[in-house]
Structure formats: C-alpha cells, structure tokens
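Why do we bother with holo predictions? Because pocket geometry can differ from the apo form. Keep that in mind while you read this record for protoporphyrin IX containing FE.
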Amino acid sequence: MTAGFIPPHPPRGSGPVPVWRGFVGERARTAVYGWSNQAFEKWYIERNVFGHRVHIVMHPDMVQRVLLDNAANYEKPKLVKKLLKPVIGRGLLSSDGELWRAQRKIVAASFAPPAVDALVPVFGEVAASAVAKWTSGARDMAREATRATMQVISSALFSGDPRLTSEEAMEHIAHALEGVSEARMQLLLGLPMIPISPRGFRGRRGQVYLRRTLSTLVHERMRPGAPDDFVTQMIRALHGRFPEHEAVELAVDNAATFYLAGHETTANAISWTLFILSEQPQWQEHASHEAAAALATGVDSELPNRLPVLRMIVDEVLRLYPSAPRFDREAVADDRIGEIDVNAGDFVSIWPWLIHRHRKLWDDPDTFDPERFSPSRKDERHRFQYLPFGAGPRTCVGARFAMAEGLTILACWLAKWRFKPMPGHEVRVSGMVTLRPKGGLPLMMERR
Ligand code: HEM
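The structure, written out:
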C-alpha cells in the first residue's frame, strides 16, 4: 500500500489560540480550524468562552467518566438545546432524563440489528439508482452522497416520501445547517437568535421549510390508511406515552432529528472515504475487488460482513474526519474528572477531532492507515479513544444503520467505478456542526 499518506487538515500554529479567534474568519465557519500543535498533545484544556467555563477532556479515562461512569451528571447543554430547538426541538438528540429515556425506548427496535440488517437491500437499491445516471468525467461526489443518504433515510424511515428528497429540500437543509453556526455565535454572546445576515436568513427559511414539511407529514400519518413505517409507528408509540399535543410536537421533533442526523453525517463519511480512496489508488483497488466479490452473491443483509477491508477503511476515515468533530455536555452537579474539579453548570467538551489525532494515543496520528483497525489490533486501543459515534448511553442510535448504509453504498459504487482526484482542486475541511469537504468534492470518474 502507498506509505505515509497524510490527508489535508487545517494548518496548526505552535501556541494556544485565543478564544476570540473562534468568532472570526475561518475558525467561525470550521469547528476544527485554528487548533495549535499543543492541543494534540495535552490531556486537558480549560477555556473560558464568554463567561462559560469549558473543560476540554482528551484522556480516554476522563472521557469515560463523562460519557459512561458518571453519565447521569452530564446533560446536553441548555445553550445547545436552545440553539437546536428551532430545528429538532426536544427530540431524542436534544433531550435528557426521562424524556430522553422514553424516546430512546420508542425508537430502539427500529435500530436494533435485525431491523437494520433487513434494510441492506434498500441501501443497495438507492446506490444502484444513483449509478444508473452517471457518466464518465467530473462529478461532485459530496452532492451524490448527500442525495443518496437523503434517499435512504426517506425510503427506510419515511416510506420514500418525495418531499424529503427534492432538490429544493436539499438546498433548504444545507442552508438550515449553515444557519445554526450563525445562531451559535449570537447565543454565546447573549444576543437574541434572530437572523442578521443573508446566511442567517437563508438558514431560517431552511429551518421553516423543514419543520413545515415534516409537520404536514406527521399530520398525514395520523389519518387512517397511512403507511405503517418508522414515523407512523413512532407517532403511535408517542401517543401511548404523552398527551396529544406533546406527542405531535415530539413526533415532528424526532422526524426532523432522524431526517437530519440520519443523512448528513453518513453522507460526509461516504464523501471522505471516496476522497481518500481517490488519493490512495492501491487501497481503492483492494476495496473495489473486495466489493465486486461481495456483491457477486447479491445485496443481502450479510453484505456488510463480506467487506472487512472496506470496513477498516471507513473506520480509519471516521477517525481522521469524524462527521461529528465535537459534542458537549453540561455538568448537573459538581464532579471530579481525574484531577479536575468541575462545577455544576460548567461545560465539558469532547472533541473526537483532537482525541482521534492525539499524539499520545496514536502512532503517526495524521497518517491514513486502515491497518490500525484490523480486528487483531482491537486490544491496542482504549475504548474511549475512538468515538466517531460517541459512547455510553447517548451513543449514536443509528451507528449500525450508518455503517451498513455507508458500506453498502460504497461497495456498489466502488465495484463499478474508479475515482480519481480532480486536477487543480484542493480539498479542504469545512463545517461547524458536521465535517464536510468545503465547496463539495469534485472527483474524476471512470467506469470499470
Ligand atoms: C457516520 C454516520 C454518523 C455519525 C458519525 C454519527 C455520530 C453521532 C454521535 C457522535 C452521536 C452522539 C452525540 C453526543 O453524544 O452528544 C450521535 C447521536 C445520535 N445519532 Fe448519529 N451519527 C451517524 C449516523 C446516524 C444515523 C444514520 C442516524 C439515524 C438514522 C443517527 C441518529 C442519531 C441520533 C438520534 C442520536 C442521538 C442519540 C441519543 O442521544 O440517544 N446518526 N450520532
């Protein structure tokens, strides 16, 4: 295999970066921009962000304390809930305590292994329908990946409702996510969350479009004769647990949560994998031959298990470009994390971006090396040093879904097509909520 490939990451200075830099220029648009070299060597960084004390914990034992051992003490921050409220309300991702537990229980069966495995043929159909339209030449693969994962989420959870996969929906969703970054700054500064720039206004329009579309869909599903899919079952279960008005509100919140959390992240994982494989032709050939052999017996629920090389590649891609580069908690009561005293109300910030590239946790941390994830080397890692899907009770409920989906789509595409870099295009990281290739991912494609 080609040795020592270091895929692009934002430049790193030598000294700590002042907090205010997070609110101007590229750092305000890209969560992983502006970290110094030191940040990848420390076990702990304390920051004060406009009066909020923030503990950034990097040691896996500290992460374990927050996400597992004392997880009940660490809730989703009120600020984050406020920020996400116009988009995903009090759904599974943005609730805590009993409300969270009840919702997690309601959706659990839909994401259990048998339910997810049964969806593999759906993933395969979506992948195949994309390929059917391709011709050789240049193509924005980030857009293709987003279109495919939107189609998957709509087919798998919403009976393929076309309102969720139109070009209009795609534009509105992209804007809604961008709008969240602008609102984040206003919120931290204690300003009201009203749009102040064209980006903010587009973001607000995107959010309104999403909520209105999903609200209409939820009301339709409450009438007799609606398809008996994930949303309908969820609505029924919520009605059995909550008063009418709250059940409807939570149904829309969760429809938005699953629609958004369920496609953006996976689309980014697929895009980053295609980008890295375009730069690593030997790994691409290896993955392509494996995919062709695995697909020879069809797209069945066992397909993901026939792709061990591709799985190692995707694991490594999620290490280097974790779709969720950070996630935060707020301490409910005082606690001690290792040597650190945490006060009630403090934020604790977990950064897969830093932990996954930490110099004391990984050899050659910036180098692409899928062999790290060969099953025989599993014991070399601490359970809390690799967190693309989070960990503990709040771990991603869609992790198995995402992996099966990503592997199936990639296998179908790699078996039939060869991807090469686009001459003259520099790939850069972008995104405040999720990590995506800045301005898309144009690649050159050839039919195999
Ligand atoms: C590569 C793809 C994905 C990545 C990297 C990812 C990452 C994550 C992470 C890191 C968390 C935990 C956040 C925290 O602890 O604060 C999370 C939670 C969650 N994810 Fe994913 N996710 C992916 C795909 C999906 C898919 C496909 C779905 C649904 C179909 C989904 C739905 C959710 C939900 C609902 C939660 C909240 C769970 C809870 O709080 O109980 N995700 N995801």
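The CA atoms of residues 69 and 392 lie 8 Å apart.
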